[in-house]
Design a protein that fits this description.
- The protein is an alpha+beta fold.
- It folds into two domains: 3-51 and 170-303, no CATH class; 54-165, 2-Layer Sandwich (Alpha-Beta Plaits), CATH 3.30.70.3040.
- Helices cover 70% and strands 8% of the residues.
- It has helices at residues 3-16, 18-52, 79-91, 103-113, 119-127, 148-155, 167-209, 211-219, 224-265, 274-303, and strands at 57-62, 95-101, 136-141, 160-164.
């Protein structure tokens, strides 16, 4: 197989169909960028839910040495008080399940969320130790609308500092994250379809422009792969450029929006990180290659009849 001819045809094809190739690249870029944004928003929703707990949960914070509420006059919650709280959780009909978050677990989660580039704030954060945190029970409810019974049952018990119900706060946050996520994915789906159609149209136009060369190659016995390879390489070039631009947009979003804007100014939740960005880029790379190479393989069989 003469690769010189293949790459020469690749260059000729890109020049002949430059406007169509640019249109394919732009469509791939925009659609995959939106897919990447949808994946990042989905990861952020999971991060927020993992940090704050799901909307079906309430959190029972136990007393520590710094607590000053009426239930905490004796200081740190004792083993007997914890046993009494657990008994209420085990017997209450509204409770589906519960788990105990230790001080170390609470500290690790807090450190993950509360990051700061300010030296003074960092010194303050470094002065906080796991022993300063509160143990807590994370209670999963059977019915999200029925929580007042268990809330009332535990909030007056000795050893309980506060009972937190964040469902009303988290509900609009999750709602808008989901709206943005599914909106981005829905728009991306339409643009992916447009990219597939553009790839198919590009292959059709390219095959028509080279119909004489293709006919001669058939007559001299050229293999199917040899005839189709320039078309596959054109699609691959468009996919690689589109994926690279989309990956750049995802990384730019992470750097400018997450790391330069949200993380320094807001510590209310654990934010997505570079690992989530790499995962999103891997997914959009696979999608980009699939939505160009698969239609190209199908259309070359149809229009080249090789």
């Amino acid at each position: 197989m003469q690769l010189t001819y293949v790459f020469s045809e690749l260059g000729n094809g890109l020049r002949r169909n430059l406007s169509m190739t640019v249109a394919v690249v732009v469509t791939i870029f925009v659609s995959l960028t939106l897919v990447g944004m949808g994946l990042l928003l989905n990861a952020q929703a999971h991060k927020a839910e993992s940090y704050w707990g799901s909307k079906l949960q309430i959190t029972v914070f136990l007393c520590n040495q710094n607590s000053s509420t009426a239930n905490c006059l004796d200081g740190e919650a004792t083993a007997a008080q914890k046993a009494a709280i657990q008994k209420v959780l085990n017997t209450n009909s509204e409770v589906d399940s519960w788990r105990l978050q230790t001080k170390q677990q609470a500290y690790d989660k807090w450190r993950e969320a509360y990051l700061s580039g300010n030296d003074t704030e960092r010194r303050v954060y470094d002065s906080i130790k796991p022993s300063d945190m509160q143990e807590s029970y994370w209670v999963q409810l059977k019915n999200p609308e029925r929580f007042q019974g268990i809330k009332g049952a535990v909030q007056g018990l000795p050893g309980v500092n506060t009972v937190r119900d964040l469902r009303s706060v988290l509900k609009p946050i999750y709602f808008w994250i989901n709206v943005l996520k599914w909106g981005a994915i829905a728009i991306a789906a339409f643009l992916v379809l447009a990219a597939v159609l553009q790839v198919a149209n590009t292959i059709r136009i390219a095959a028509f422009a080279r119909r004489r060369e293709i006919g001669i190659m058939r007559l001299v016995g050229a293999s199917s792969l040899y005839i189709a390879l320039p078309f596959l390489l054109e699609a691959l070039v468009a996919a690689v450029v589109g994926v690279a631009l989309a990956a750049g947009a995802v990384l730019l979003f992470m750097w400018v929006v997450i790391y330069r804007t949200l993380r320094p100014s807001s510590n209310i939740v654990a934010w997505i990180d570079w690992g989530n960005a790499v995962t999103a880029i891997g997914v959009i790379a696979a999608i980009g290659l699939a939505l160009t190479l698969i239609p190209t393989l199908v259309m070359t069989r149809k229009y080249l009849r090789v």
